[in-house]
Amino acid sequence: MTRKALITWGGWDGHEPGKVADLFESILAADGMVVEVQSTLECFADAEYLRSLDLIVPVWTTPKIEPDHAVNVSEAVARGTGLAGCHGGMCGAFRENVLWQFMTGGNWVAHPGGDGVDYMVEITDPDHTLTEGIEDFEVSSEQYYLHVDPATDILATTEFPIVHWYHSSNRSVDMPVAWTKRWGLGRVYYNALGHQVNVIDHGPALEMIRRGLIWASHGREAALANGERFEDYAAEGTQC
Fold first, then answer.
1. Is 0.70 topped by the overall pTM?
2. Residue 237 lies in a domain
3. Domain-located, residue 238
4. Which residues, listed in sequence order, are joined to residue 108 by a DSSP beta bridge?
5. Could you give the 3-state DSSP secondary structure of residue 162?
6. CB 112 within 8 A of CB 167
7. Handedness of CA 107, 109, 111, 112 (dihedral sign)
8. Other C-beta atoms lying within 10 Å of the C-beta of residue 110
9. Residue 146 belongs to a domain with what CATH number?
10. Which of 2, 37, 156, 230 could bridge to 177 as Cys pair (CB 3.0-4.6 Å)?
11. What was the pLDDT predicted at 209?
C-alpha cells in the first residue's frame, strides 16, 4: 500500500519554510510516498484526514495553533501517523501549546551567539538505524538550547557552552540535537538542525533527516506488528 504524507509550511520567512518543504517533499517522493504540500494550518482541522496519513511534517515557525487542531494531530499520531521535522518548523512552532510540546518532545528556548556558530554534532547512539554509519560532524549555524522531554531517546548532542553568555555560569551540558519518542502507536522524530535549508540539504545532516522522516512514517505498521493497540494507550478523560 502506498504511504501518504502531509507537509504543511508557513510562518516566519527567515527559516525558508518553502525551501525546507521542497527538500522534504523530494526526500519522501524518492521513497515512493504520495506527498501533499499545503501552506495553511487549516489542514489540521480534518481529524479523519490526518488519521489516514502515514506522516505529518510541520514546517512552521511562531504562529499559533488552534487548540482543537493540536488535538487532531495528537490523536492522529497516537493512532500511528508519524510526526517528523526540524528546527525551523516543529519544536520552534506553536510554543504556547503544551500538548504540542509534550507530543514533540522539546521546545526551543535560545541560540546563544546567533547564526554562524561553529560546533560539533556528536552521535550518541551510533547503533541506531537512524545514525548507523554516520560520524560526528561540524556545523556552522545557530546552536540551539532546548528544553527536552527526559523520555526522549537521544540520537545526537552538542556541547554547551561554546558561546559564553549568562548560561555559561552553569555547568557544561550535552544538549540534544536529534531524538525520537513514541506517542501512542506513532513515532516522533526531531532534528534541531535546519535554521535554513543550506544547513540540512547535504552531508550527514541531510542523511539523518532523510532517515528520520522515513522511519517516522512506518510507526503504525511497526506498532501493530509488535501487537500494540491504540486502546493500550488511550485513557478515557485524559487530557493535556
1. yes
2. no
3. no
4. 146
5. coil
6. yes
7. negative
8. 15
9. 3.40.50.880
10. 156
11. 98
